[in-house]
Amino acid sequence: MGFAAPALPEDARTRIEAAAFRRLLSHLNEARPDVQNIDLMILAGFCRNCLADWYRDAATAEGVALDKDAAREAVYGMPFAQWKAQHQKDATPEQLAAFKAAQEKHAS
Fold first, then answer.
1. Taking a C-beta distance cutoff of 8 angstroms, is the pair 72, 52 a contact?
2. Cross-referenced Pfam families, in alphabetical order (predicted)?
3. Residue 98: burial class (beta carbons within 10 Å; 0-12, 13-18, 19+)
4. What is the mean pLDDT of residues 29-54?
5. Cα gap 100→52, rounded to integer Å
6. Alpha-carbon torsion 99, 101, 105, 108, what sign?
7. What is the set of domains in the chain, with CATH numbers?
8. Which 8-state DSSP code applies to residue 94?
9. Rg of the Cα trace of the chain?
């Protein structure tokens, strides 16, 4: 991972990481559903959809078949279409410009 994590038994580390992941999802989806995915992409280079893709990749690595919709529902806490209807707004021209600039910055 590139940092010195404390020495923990593997099962404890897994439980701690899982709890931190669940807390991140709770924060994004319950405390801050107003934070748009495009804003996350601009600032952090990932969004809720990225988390769902990583979740699906992890499931696949464990031999568990999980489709895109199921992975998104696990991350969003509800079907994606429902979350989108309740929380997603159209991107502003400023957000689109910032997103483009962020992509260009990370491509070089």
1. yes
2. DUF1244
3. middle
4. 95
5. 22
6. positive
7. 10-107 (1.10.3340.10)
8. H
9. 16
